[in-house]
Design brief:
Length: 424
């Protein structure tokens, strides 16, 4: 597979975009057979008692199939991330340096219960010129196998080299994959904290991803209650089994009496179980007690923990202590407080007066995403096309040697910035 990376890196934009549109059309044409394969997975998962959040993620029918096709078409409409000049500098007359984006090479994606993630990863890898290894969970084996076969055959017909993508299916495949430090450039895991930690601890290959989605909303004392309630409800219930759904709500003491009772009505109408600290229970009697473990838990379920705080600083300190650096939001009408929150909360995504569910590659206009990174390396937040390219330095000279620029009478460098449009 590594031998194919030079071919993939030089595919034209026209070829890649045409292939993406072909994949979208193929998915629509095969929606019925894909749904049937997925139904087999759902029935088998039901028998073995797969957890409900994973069951939700496993489903690949109807709107999810349509969304997968739409995501591929959106990718085709985006600018090509490969070959983009990031900087240009003259070192000396006739000695020009360019920083230019290029594919990572071979990217491996290991994920649980998400057939739609397989489609997203294939599309993003194709557009960014990367070879891709895919390993889904055994609970999605029927769906993933059919998807991989259809995606590979369609993409090869559209001009990609044979073998540019590969579906791994066994635990032994994963063990082998984790040892391929000379052949795989990046691993992107998507799944539970335990799963991601296992990947990180058993490979020397760089790993990009996040382990938890412990997401917070802080309702400031200057919040608009009518704005806050639907925003919180959306963040918790629009799609509960995802990493950007809110898990902990922090409410300023001054506004707690006004926001908590109507919020309880709105959330309980959607079957959300509330857990609160002692001060929260003054306004919401008879809800469950929130304990220390609740602040550290990603529920992926209809459960919300609530804590009353006295200041924005207290809310920020709580988030930076218990959060997973994924997504956190503030609801307030005070711009200074909002800016303070977004500057001081150490998370990949920080929002002001917006649902945490917006933390998504498709909604960001990235076309799709391979996951959300909480790392502080080359990509952070929703990882789309820009997270699947790196860069190389291209130096154009006319026979210059370093000896002329060193010694007792060195020739000076000009280090003059060049227009990006002037790259050779």
């Amino acid at each position: 597979m590594k031998a194919l990376t030079p071919v993939l890196s030089t595919l034209t934009t026209a070829v890649k975009d045409a292939a993406l549109r072909s994949l979208a059309q193929m998915i629509r044409e095969n929606a019925q057979v894909l749904a049937e394969a997925n139904q087999k997975d759902l029935e088998e998962a039901e028998v073995v008692g797969l957890a409900q959040p994973l069951m939700i993620r496993l489903k690949f029918q109807g709107e999810k199939i349509a969304g997968a096709a739409e995501g591929l078409e959106a990718l085709a409409g985006l600018a090509d991330p490969v070959g983009r000049t990031l900087s240009a500098r003259e070192l000396d007359q006739g000695l020009d340096l360019y920083q230019v984006t290029c594919p990572l090479g071979v990217v491996a994606m290991i994920f649980e219960s998400r057939p739609d993630a397989l489609v997203q990863m294939v599309g993003l890898a194709l557009k960014s010129g990367n070879a891709v290894i895919l390993k889904g969970g055994s609970e999605a084996k029927h769906t993933n196998r059919l998807l991989a076969d259809l995606l590979l055959s369609t993409s090869v017909k559209a001009g990609l080299p044979k073998g540019w993508m590969f579906l791994a299916e066994t635990r032994d495949d994963v063990k082998t994959l984790l040892e391929l430090s000379d052949s795989v450039d990046l691993i992107i895991p998507r799944g539970s904290n335990e799963f991601v930690q296992y990947i990180m601890q058993n490979t020397t290959i760089p790993v990009l991803g996040h382990a938890d989605g412990i997401v917070h909303i802080y309702v400031d004392g200057n919040a608009d209650v009518e704005k806050a309630i639907p925003l919180i409800v959306d963040s918790k219930t629009q799609y509960v089994a995802v990493c950007n759904a809110v898990e902990t709500l922090l409410v300023h003491r001054d506004i707690a009496p006004y926001v908590l009772p109507p919020l309880r009505m709105a959330l309980e109408a959607r079957a959300v179980v509330l857990r609160g600290d002692a001060e929260t229970k003054r306004y919401l009697p008879n809800i469950e007690d929130a304990v220390e473990q609740d602040w550290e838990t990603e529920y992926l379920d209809l459960i919300l923990s609530i804590k009353v705080v006295g200041t924005a600083d207290e809310a920020i300190a709580h988030i930076n202590t218990y959060g997973s650096k994924h997504t956190d939001a503030i609801v307030t009408e005070n711009r200074a407080t909002a800016e303070k929150f977004m500057n001081e909360v150490d998370s990949a995504n920080v929002f002001w007066n917006a649902s945490t569910r917006f933390a998504d590659g498709f909604r960001y206009g990235l076309g799709a995403e391979v996951g959300v990174s909480t790392a502080k390396i080359h990509a952070r937040g929703p990882v789309g096309l820009d997270g699947l390219v790196i860069y190389k330095w291209k130096l154009y000279g006319h026979g210059q040697v370093v000896a002329h620029y060193s010694g007792s009478d060195p020739k000076p460098f000009t280090h003059r910035e060049l227009p990006l449009a002037g790259r050779r």
